[in-house]
Amino acid sequence: MQSKEHWEQVYSTKSEDAVSWFQEHAHQSIELIARTGVSRDASIIDVGGGASTLIDDLLAEGYQHVTVLDLSEAALAASRARLGDRARSMVWLAGDITKLELPRHAYDVWHDRAVFHFLTTLEEREAYVNAVLRAVKPGGHVIVATFAEDGPEKCSGLPVMRYSADGLHAEFGAPFTLLQHEREEHHTPFGTVQKFIYCLCRKESN
């Protein structure tokens, strides 16, 4: 996992909309969360959610129990400042998902558009999957987006992994059923296009 210092530097020196992964609205993520069929009082965690606007969209859609986890305190602070009083109803966690121990069976939906493709070692990816297995309820849903096979080879100056839908699902293995996958062409604030793959899975085992 890349250092906390790297991401604190990024979010301390750049505005939220001056990074390549910025989305004014997280349309694809919101649509996939809606397709899980969870109620508005479901527990949702956004891993690597930092300064992402997904939280704004979830609140606008009426979701009530949302946790945002990020390595960067500065990223979380940016979201809290943007949301103002609305931030008080959210849970904010700072930490490395490959090391942090989340509560068991706490979440109906796990969402990640920011972290998994930065995990370049097998040990990091295994620790991440173990965290998902622990924290997501049996029958819960996991939405992970990474750079696609024809996506960038680096992001924020750091090396990344690129995946096909089958390759991404294989990282999670038999406890997870792949329900659907989608591609996204993300248009960055700089006028470039990044190719993403989204996988929606259901966790079958305990």
What secondary-structure arrangement, pairings included, does this model have?
Elements: H1 4-13, H2 27-35, E1 43-47, H3 54-60, E2 65-70, H4 73-83, E3 91-94, E4 107-112, H5 122-135, E5 136-147, E6 154-155, E7 158-159, H6 165-172, E8 176-187, E9 193-203
Which structural class matches the secondary elements?
A: alpha/beta
Mean pLDDT: 88
Strand order of the largest sheet: 3-2-1-4-5-9-8
CATH architecture: 3-Layer(aba) Sandwich
Quickly count the domains.
1
Helical amount: 25-40%
Assign the CATH topology.
Answer: Rossmann fold
Radius of gyration: 16 Å
Low-confidence stretches: none
Biggest sheet statistics: 7 strands, mixed
Q: Could you give the order of the helices and strands?
A: HHEHEHEEHEEEHEE
Spell out the CATH superfamily: Vaccinia Virus protein VP39
What is the class in the CATH system? Alpha Beta
- Beta-strand residue percentage: 25-35%
First CA to last CA: what distance? Answer: 26 Å
Compute the number of helices: 6
Strand runs, count: 9
Overall 3D form: globular
Account of the 3D structure:
The protein has six helices and nine strands. It is an alpha/beta fold. The chain has one domain: Vaccinia Virus protein VP39 (Rossmann fold). The protein has a seven-stranded mixed sheet, with helices on both faces. Helix 1 runs parallel beside helix 4. The longest helix is centred in the middle third of the chain and has 14 residues. The relative contact order is 0.17.
